[in-house]
From TrEMBL:
The lineage of its organism: Eukaryota, Metazoa, Ecdysozoa, Nematoda, Chromadorea. InterPro entries: Impact (IPR023582), Impact_N (IPR001498), Impact_N_sf (IPR036956), Ribosomal_Su5_D2-typ_SF (IPR020568). Belongs to the IMPACT family. SUPFAM superfamilies: Ribosomal protein S5 domain 2-like. GO terms for cellular component: cytoplasm. This is UPF0029 domain-containing protein. GO terms for biological process: GCN2-mediated signaling; regulation of translational initiation.
Length: 187
């Protein structure tokens, strides 16, 4: 119905801008929609617990660093499998603040054994902050931080930080790993 109206407005105004006509048609269509009925849940159906209530991954959160209106925060969890990595991301993204971050940069390393031989697994995800996660993973490798995952959330503040953003991401990664006793032990 609305599709036909939009198409008619286009055909009638070939060669002229139609965006304002389309907006009027869509506004009229939305106003004519019947109000939504709230969903009712049967009394015998228990409400599912929020994912934060079942967080047994013991996720650690670092301090928030702010630079020129951009904010950064590191999160860390011990992981032993790809399923753990996926679960940590689901738990983190269930937090609306973390979910709304402009970037959630991820790096993880864990080790498994096959036939008594250690197998090393690692990966990283830039989430739009190109090159940041590989630097995090390189830092984790140099610190020999195994069976751990670090996520650095960045909320962009509108001012370009240039290479400083990579310095902040690496410093927060190093700090949260050190604070949680990952990496080489000091004598």
């Amino acid at each position: 119905m609305v599709h036909n109206s939009l198409n008619d407005a286009y055909v009638e105004n070939i060669g002229f801008p139609v965006i304002f006509n389309w907006i009027s048609i869509i506004q009229d269509f939305i106003q004519d929609l019947p109000p939504e009925e709230p969903e009712t849940v049967p009394d015998d159906v228990a409400e599912a617990p929020a994912i934060e209530e079942i967080d047994d991954m013991n996720i650690q959160h670092g301090e928030v660093l702010t630079d020129r209106k951009s904010a950064f925060q590191a999160h860390l969890a011990a992981v032993k499998s790809k399923e753990d990595v996926d679960r940590v991301m689901r738990i983190l993204k269930s937090n609306t603040k973390i979910c709304r971050a402009t970037h959630n940069i991820v790096a993880y390393r864990y080790q498994t054994e096959v036939n008594g031989r250690p197998i090393h697994h690692h990966d990283c995800v830039d989430d739009g902050e190109f090159g940041a996660s590989s630097k995090m993973l390189e830092l984790m490798d140099r610190m020999k931080a195994d069976n751990v995952m670090v996520v650095v959330s960045r909320w962009y503040g509108g001012i370009h930080l240039g290479p400083d953003r990579f310095r902040h991401i690496n410093n927060l990664t190093r700090q949260i790993l050190s604070d949680n006793n990952y990496g080489p032990k000091k004598q």
